[in-house]
Protein: Phospholipase A2-activating protein
Amino acid sequence: MSSTNIYKLRCSIPGHEMDVRGVAPAAFPDGAFVSVSRDRTGRVWVPNSSPDRGFSEMLCMAGHSNFVSCVCIIAPSETYPRGLIATGGNDNIICIFSLDRPQPLYTLQGHKNTVCTLSSGKFGTLLSGSWDTTAKVWLNEKCMMTLQGHTAAVWAVLILPEQGLMLSGSADKTIKLWKAGRCERTFTGHEDCVRGLAVISSTEFFSCSNDTSIRRWLVTGECVQVYYSHTNYIYSLAVFPNSQDFISTGEDRTLRIWKQGECCQTIRLPAQSVWCCCILPNGDIAVGASDGIIRVFTQAEDRMASAEDLQAFEDELSKSTIDPKTGDLGDIKMEDLPGREHLNEPGNRDGQTRLIKDGQKVEAYQWSVSDGRWMKIGDVVGGSNQQTSKNVTYEGKEYDYVFTIDVNEGGPSFKLPYNVAEDPWLTAHNFLQKNDLSPMFLDQVANFIIENTKGHVVGPPPPAGGDPFTGGGAYSSAALRQTSTNIYFPKTDGVTFDQANASQIISKLKELNGGAPPEHKLSEETVESLERLLQACGSHSSECPLTIQDINLLWKASHLPEDIVFPVLDIMRLAVRHPQVNENLCGEAEGVQLCNHLLSLMRPEGRPANQMLALRTLCNCFSGRHGRALLMAQRETVLSRAADLAAVCNKNIHVALATLVLNYAGCLHSQPDLEAKAQCLSVASRALETVQDKEAIFRLLVALGTTVFSDQSARDLARSLGVNSQISKFSSVSDPSKVGECCQLVLKELQ
Structure:
């Protein structure tokens, strides 16, 4: 098969009725790809053997009640050997399709606004991004984690290979790196909204932005290269298999091919917005655009369109209208433009544009290196002389319109500047964001713009609606595994902190109480009560009766100032093991108060002794059914606050933190609550990055093993978070041997 270095049209596929917003290579059949559109459908295209070298529609998928914004492929599994298709839409949902039916297998709901970007990872993990400013991690039809931290719409997400790392790019101009649900790093450098992300390797990625630049980043935070060539927003990127060369598309009507860091070919399309692109397995390129047409380009001569079709494509391009307000062609001064003779001079690079004056018309041409000639790419139409509206100056810039918008009755009005060449939906979105208004008004504002600018458009009218953006399942068999002797996990009985020197605790209590200011000094009666309580609970026996007054005095004393409270916390740590104390302090009425009090003592800026004793008290609450019920109900808050203490450099705190995670893992074992297990995995994984103490590491490993034991979904989630590579370094630890042995068993479980 002969091939050239130049891409040319292979075919045009007029398969959608509105903008094509996403394309992705399908896992099956060979050479197929998927497209999604504002027409609310997704379609699977397979190569056909017809003379036009085109594609046939294999499947039309319908499941969204609004525009479809994005698509990605979930890799084949034992359950779905042909893979699955995930689509996100303006109806805030994600639909999951198989290749054998037009309706979704299931939907994923949780986002509060448009789902505009999707990325799939190993073991069925799916990552989504939304206008609601969050990204979400999905597995087995459930949301495992919500990644919060961006202050504007998340327009791009990406799961990096191998290391359990995830990326999100946002309209807040930043990119964030996430590991185990936590933001590890924020990348800054783009000067406008981040629109697309593409993986280069496990340590590098590309980003593109409305600022017309493409950036190459290391996951460690450095931007190693910036690429310029586009003249307007860049919407999408795709990387060739060599992990170096790539393609990009944008609002400047172009597909650009980049080789060895340079833009080596620019292909203009007869559509304003080239929303999306993907690279097919044979090296061909599929792009989707605002005219509803998918176009496929190829380097292989035997797949190129016929001479007639290539000429028809060029003729269509030459009839396009280009509005100078888009900025694609730079500033245009009619009187300074040369005549047609200027086209006799060759261009100096592929894609170079040249404007010439032909009477009262301005025409745009692009240099084609392969053909050695200037190709007409459209007629340039002026602004005000083509329209009935007058230009209005607002904040120092000229616009076709400046509307006054009243969103809330009785509230302040806002100015909305607008040019007819702009996308009304993008303008409406930016207007709402700039003025901190609810995205609920998006349709209302966009339709207001459309209604009040009817007849004043350049080129074909935009569809009446649409969003302004480019925008799992674990399908493994639950095969039984042969288990070797495992004395470490699952550990389902709670681990408690029982050791105590009662005389030392009382001695310290009396010493601190003696020096306390009068308003905080405990009465002799209270000290005696605490001493009696300590003796009754020190035996860990339920046979010693306690009075309600003793328990109430303990609760009151636990609110002493933080610099003198720790002996009381030590008594409370031992007391909550007693069934009567456990019931009284952890019961429905008092339990939440106890939880909130202990969490306040665990603030990162708090005293380490109080942090440790609060953690130990929580661990010991698991010894009674009331304590277990309380902590399971408060799990999300408790684990989130506890996880922050991994950053405190104190081995006793780390052991207590690891024990808390382990006790949660034990309670969750054999329960189907995958979201709760995801939090355990996340907290354990994050803690293992900073914890040094071997006992803490051991308990975290037992927690991981207990969480994933006999639970295929939890195993898949752990693998997708990169737990394997994270803990492998502990497998060779021999002092103590239990660390290495337990680690090896966890790794075996995750195979």
In short: The CA atoms of residues 365 and 376 lie 4 Å apart. The first strand starts at residue 3 and ends at 13.
